[in-house]
Design a protein that fits this description.
mainly alpha
């Protein structure tokens, strides 16, 4: 595992530590969880775009209209 140093507002760090503590984890663990989720977002976007590309031949037949009276 690699160590990385970041700078942030000291009050923000303290509030983040309090949140992590309330969740029974360290700020380091919370940050690693966030970092993993953040890094996964690009993969999700790429998967979504690939799916849309595969489905682009589908024609829904027009716009769906909602009728509140029905």
């Amino acid at each position: 595992m690699k160590n990385v140093a970041f700078s942030a507002d000291e009050h923000l760090i303290e509030r983040a530590r309090e949140v992590a503590k309330a969740e029974h984890k360290t700020l380091n663990v919370a940050f690693r969880e966030w970092l993993a989720a953040y890094a996964a977002r690009k993969g999700n976007v790429q998967q979504y775009r690939a799916l849309m590309e595969r489905l682009k031949h589908i024609d829904s037949g027009g716009q769906i209209q909602s009728r509140r009276d029905e």
